[in-house]
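Project standup — Tuesday

K.O.: blocked on the structure for the chain from last sprint. Re-posting the sequence here as requested.
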Amino acid sequence: MAKDKKTKIVIEGITEEGTIFRPSDWAERVSGHLSTVKNQRLHYSPLLKPSFKDGKRCLIIDMELQTLHPALYQHILDFAKHNKLRICSDENSGEKHEK
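H.V.: unblocked you, prediction finished:
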Protein backbone atom coordinates (compact mmCIF):
# COMPACT_ATOMS: atom_id res chain seq x y z
CA MET A 1 0.00 0.00 0.00
CA ALA A 2 1.47 3.36 -1.02
CA LYS A 3 1.72 5.94 1.70
CA ASP A 4 0.06 9.30 1.11
CA LYS A 5 2.67 11.94 0.28
CA LYS A 6 1.03 14.45 2.61
CA THR A 7 1.68 12.64 5.87
CA LYS A 8 2.49 15.78 7.90
CA ILE A 9 1.36 19.35 8.11
CA VAL A 10 3.25 22.31 9.52
CA ILE A 11 1.76 25.16 11.49
CA GLU A 12 4.20 28.04 11.34
CA GLY A 13 4.62 30.56 14.14
CA ILE A 14 4.02 33.39 11.67
CA THR A 15 0.66 35.06 11.24
CA GLU A 16 -0.93 35.81 7.88
CA GLU A 17 0.14 39.42 8.45
CA GLY A 18 3.79 38.30 8.78
CA THR A 19 4.27 38.87 12.51
CA ILE A 20 5.85 36.34 14.87
CA PHE A 21 3.25 34.62 17.03
CA ARG A 22 3.58 35.00 20.80
CA PRO A 23 4.15 33.52 23.32
CA SER A 24 7.43 32.21 22.00
CA ASP A 25 6.87 28.73 23.49
CA TRP A 26 3.47 28.21 21.85
CA ALA A 27 4.61 25.12 19.90
CA GLU A 28 5.94 23.43 23.04
CA ARG A 29 2.70 24.20 24.89
CA VAL A 30 0.56 22.68 22.13
CA SER A 31 2.89 19.67 21.82
CA GLY A 32 2.53 19.11 25.54
CA HIS A 33 -0.94 17.65 24.95
CA LEU A 34 0.67 14.36 23.86
CA SER A 35 4.05 14.57 25.58
CA THR A 36 5.24 12.18 28.27
CA VAL A 37 7.83 12.42 31.02
CA LYS A 38 10.31 9.61 31.49
CA ASN A 39 13.37 9.77 33.74
CA GLN A 40 12.66 13.45 34.38
CA ARG A 41 12.85 14.24 30.65
CA LEU A 42 10.06 15.50 28.45
CA HIS A 43 9.43 13.40 25.33
CA TYR A 44 7.27 14.73 22.52
CA SER A 45 5.01 12.41 20.58
CA PRO A 46 6.00 11.70 16.97
CA LEU A 47 2.42 12.73 16.12
CA LEU A 48 2.79 16.26 17.49
CA LYS A 49 6.09 18.02 18.10
CA PRO A 50 7.68 21.45 18.06
CA SER A 51 10.27 22.25 15.44
CA PHE A 52 11.82 25.10 13.48
CA LYS A 53 11.27 26.14 9.89
CA ASP A 54 13.39 28.88 8.37
CA GLY A 55 14.62 29.73 11.87
CA LYS A 56 11.11 30.24 13.25
CA ARG A 57 9.06 28.06 15.58
CA CYS A 58 6.54 25.71 14.07
CA LEU A 59 4.49 22.68 14.96
CA ILE A 60 4.76 19.41 13.03
CA ILE A 61 1.58 17.34 12.98
CA ASP A 62 1.53 13.80 11.67
CA MET A 63 -1.75 13.26 9.83
CA GLU A 64 -2.24 10.06 11.83
CA LEU A 65 -3.22 12.39 14.71
CA GLN A 66 -6.47 13.06 12.85
CA THR A 67 -7.38 9.37 13.09
CA LEU A 68 -6.05 8.62 16.58
CA HIS A 69 -7.08 11.86 18.34
CA PRO A 70 -9.65 13.63 16.12
CA ALA A 71 -10.80 16.11 18.79
CA LEU A 72 -7.22 17.20 19.55
CA TYR A 73 -6.44 17.46 15.84
CA GLN A 74 -9.46 19.70 15.28
CA HIS A 75 -8.66 21.78 18.36
CA ILE A 76 -5.14 22.46 17.06
CA LEU A 77 -6.40 23.43 13.59
CA ASP A 78 -9.02 25.71 15.16
CA PHE A 79 -6.28 27.29 17.30
CA ALA A 80 -4.16 27.92 14.21
CA LYS A 81 -7.04 29.38 12.23
CA HIS A 82 -8.23 31.56 15.11
CA ASN A 83 -4.71 32.99 15.50
CA LYS A 84 -4.25 33.27 11.71
CA LEU A 85 -1.16 31.06 11.67
CA ARG A 86 0.23 29.72 8.41
CA ILE A 87 -0.60 26.07 7.71
CA CYS A 88 1.23 24.12 5.00
CA SER A 89 2.38 20.62 4.11
CA ASP A 90 5.74 19.38 5.36
CA GLU A 91 7.94 19.42 2.27
CA ASN A 92 11.17 18.77 4.15
CA SER A 93 11.01 15.58 6.18
CA GLY A 94 14.68 15.97 7.15
CA GLU A 95 14.32 19.21 9.08
CA LYS A 96 15.67 19.42 12.61
CA HIS A 97 13.17 18.83 15.38
CA GLU A 98 13.52 20.30 18.84
CA LYS A 99 14.02 17.75 21.61
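K.O.: great, moving the ticket to review. Residues 8-89 form a domain with the Alpha-Beta Plaits fold (CATH 3.30.70.2340). The radius of gyration is 13 Å.
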